[in-house]
């Protein structure tokens, strides 16, 4: 296995998790921080580029300046739930086609320039009120895009919607993600565990 020294996570609030954006070493208190110790123990430098509220278009707006300059060897991309959410809270929808048309060139660009291993995180949502169940139809399109792009780019897929749906059969949603999106400590650990499973399945080296 190849040692990976530059490990980068980019996405929305679930990745951001309250990091200090003025401090490049700040990792927040979410799933990235739960993975950082084992990554750092192998000599990897971990960067968290999550920004709360980001959609795919927001990643695109900062991809060159923030992501490409890190020259990642392992890149995790986690986006999609805000692309769904803005449709319902701001009447600002993002179609699955537009979501895909934004993400694909970003992945193409970084792969052609730096050739990182890719981990794509499937967005999840747990409806907390009955009227939110219809939101899943919108999210399904984004999930399908992420799965398709993972296959297209040979990326490892982290099936978080499946993970959280299964967990919600055993735990109250409030113990996982009280608003259906932002994880608790338990939720963040579930994300970290799912990332590990996918990353190791792809023989991503964490110093082993």
Give the arrangement of secondary structure elements.
Blueprint: E1 6-11, H1 13-16, H2 31-41, E2 45-48, H3 56-67, E3 74-78, H4 81-89, H5 96-114, E4 117-121, H6 135-153, E5 156-158, H7 160-168, H8 173-176, H9 185-201
Parallel strand pairs: 1-2, 1-3, 3-4, 4-5
- The CATH architecture can be named as 3-Layer(aba) Sandwich
- Beta-strand percentage range: 5-15%
Oligomeric state, counting identical vs distinct chains: single chain
Main sheet specs: 5 strands, parallel
Give the beta-strand count: 5
Unreliable spans are 204-208
CA-based gyration radius: 16 Å
Q: What overall form do the CA principal axes indicate?
A: globular
Which range best describes the helical content: under 10%, 10-25%, 25-40%, 40-55%, 55-70% or over 70%?
40-55%
The overall number of domains is 1
CATH superfamily: SGNH hydrolase
N-C termini distance: 7 Å
CATH level 3 topology: Rossmann fold
* SSE string, helices as H and strands as E: EHHEHEHHEHEHHH
Describe this structure in words.
Helix content is 50%, strand content 11%. With 208 residues, it is α/β, with parallel strands linked by helices. The protein has a single domain, classed as Rossmann fold (3-Layer(aba) Sandwich). A five-stranded parallel sheet has the order 2-1-3-4-5, with helices on both faces. The longest helix has 19 residues, at 96-114. The radius of gyration is 16 Å and the shape is globular. The chain starts with 5 loop residues before the first strand and ends in a 7-residue tail after the last helix.
């Amino acid at each position: 296995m190849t040692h990976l020294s530059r490990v980068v996570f980019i996405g929305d609030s679930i990745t951001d998790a309250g990091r200090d954006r003025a401090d490049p070493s700040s990792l927040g208190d979410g799933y990235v921080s739960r993975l950082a110790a084992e990554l750092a123990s192998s000599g990897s430098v971990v960067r968290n580029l999550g920004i709360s509220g980001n959609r795919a278009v927001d990643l695109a707006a900062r991809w060159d300046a923030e992501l490409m300059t890190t020259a990642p060897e392992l890149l995790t991309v986690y986006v999609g739930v805000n692309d769904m959410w803005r449709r319902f809270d701001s009447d600002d929808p993002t179609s699955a086609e537009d979501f895909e048309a934004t993400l694909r060139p970003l992945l193409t660009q970084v792969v052609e320039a730096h050739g990182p291993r890719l981990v794509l995180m499937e967005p999840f949502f747990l409806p907390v009120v009955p009227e939110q169940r219809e939101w899943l139809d919108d999210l399904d399109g984004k999930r399908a895009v992420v799965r398709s792009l993972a296959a297209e780019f040979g990326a490892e897929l982290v099936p978080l919607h499946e993970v959280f749906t299964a967990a919600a059969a055993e735990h109250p949603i409030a113990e996982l993600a009280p608003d259906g999106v932002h994880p608790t400590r338990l939720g963040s650990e579930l994300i970290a565990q799912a990332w590990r499973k996918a990353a190791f399945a792809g023989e991503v080296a964490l110093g082993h």
